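Question (not urgent): is this output format expected?
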Amino acid sequence: MEYRERSYRSRFSSDGRRWFCVKFLESDLWIGVDSGSYRASMEDAAYTFLVDLRRSMDAYLLTDTQYKAALTPYDAGLEAPEILKEMSRVSHKTGIGPMSAVAGAVAQKVADCIKSGYGVKEVIVENGGDIYAQVSGDMDISVFAGQSPLSEKVGLHIPAAAFPCGICTSSGTVGPSLSLGRADAMMIVCRDVMLADSYATAMANRIQSAADLQPVMDRIRDIPGILGALAVKDDRMAISGQFELRLFN
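Got this back:
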């Protein structure tokens, strides 16, 4: 089931940062920067960068159709854009296809564009539930889990020392992205947003029922690159890692 109304974005909108939306093709980015750094030209700059990035990626994918279809690690060709090569490197760590990292990769690259062009103090880029964040304070992040009664009721407290990082969520019941599992949500936090995005898919693939939640968390504990994880299936959840659980009204 796909939820097109991104109501969870309203939690960000009241945090004192300046927020704007940039869309091109399937990419729908919600971007926040500290108010003191915001400039109106950021919006056009982010859009232009996103268009160029997506066009370069799509042009390569037309010539290498196996890349987009791969469900296991796959190396991009020498002529591929650097973003696709980075996604390939991540796929070898997580054991699944490189497209599993695409939303996080785009978020990262757009954030890098804004940081290099404007020297912002803080930047958050959310791309379909996958987040790159560089902020100076603590953040409480709720998990969107579709029709689960726990959706947006539970989340993680991420302290300032953990940033910059990626906070990514995969689901087998929400959204158009391919998942081999039936998790309502699998949230993963890593320093590398591409790694978080790909691991979120890889771990969500392993959840078919609530009985799978704890075994998956046990597996996550043995992966050093994962800082924290929260999984939801139906009315049950499981947590792993260094972050505290948060409850939301």
